[in-house]
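Our example copied in:
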Amino acid sequence: MRQLALAILVSAVTAAVYGPIALLWWRRARVRGRTLRLVAAVELEPYHAALLRNGATEAAAAELVLAGHLRIDDEGAAFLTGQGRDPARAPAHPLPAALLEAVRRHDPEPVSIGWIAWCDDDYHQRLDEYRSAREALLPRLPRMPDGRGNTFLTCFACIGIALVMLFWLLAAALLLTGRPQGLREWVLTVVAALGLAALLLAEKAGRVVRRRTECGDPLGDLVRSEPHPAFEALDEERRLLVLGSIGDRHTWRGVDTVVHEESDEASGEDDDEDDAWLDDKVWWEDAYEYRACDEDEADPEKRPSSG
């Protein structure tokens, strides 16, 4: 009788534990399949893909260099060519066109692409407008269920784990102290033992479900799969020049360059310090002479006699 009750109770608890795990597997597998289908249907424009991986300015600068609108020197300064100064000639895509307009605003002063990407408000506005227009075309990817963000479910799971552990200890104690008689009781004992073993593996089963149904970042993988064709078309030398200009955010600021007359101010401060030192020196010398005169007048005996 004990073996039958144990087999029924252990089987029921095992089913109650593995039921939510099976439901989680089913839900996550559905979400994973839907996510992969949505991402497979996405057709990203090269500049949109570059924008999603924070390389839109890099791609735009590469296209302008390839088209002959820009020239970048070894120090990272970008200059307009004769073709780049022609207002009738501009790229068809809005991002390189916005970058070209930003460089034209600084012409004829040298400016780095990194300074424009960091500090040019008009260029930022054009970039944000393009980002907003393209993000509206992206599908909304479903959220992968994991139950970790729900406080109620987390507390309920903790209580359930504690109750299952208590049940497992009691069932194991009853199973070990029982003395099965006959084939039927031995079969029930084996069923109860297998159920207890399955309860021990429930946490591992949950981890396996999450690992096998994890879809990762398919949209990010798609974005990173191919670089921008304009940047790929550059040779190694010009590619390094573009990257160097993008990495420079302070040296070349175009018309925003502010020349601080620090050297003149520093020299003025040095002169003031020298004058103050000289004044102190003269004061000490005068004070010494006055003190010597006072001592001579106060002590006439110490003066040398005249004959």
User: Anything to note?
Assistant: Confidence is low (pLDDT under 50) at residues 258-268, 280-296, 298-307. The first strand starts at residue 70 and ends at 72. Residues 2-40 form the longest helix (39 residues). The two ends are 145 Å apart (CA to CA).
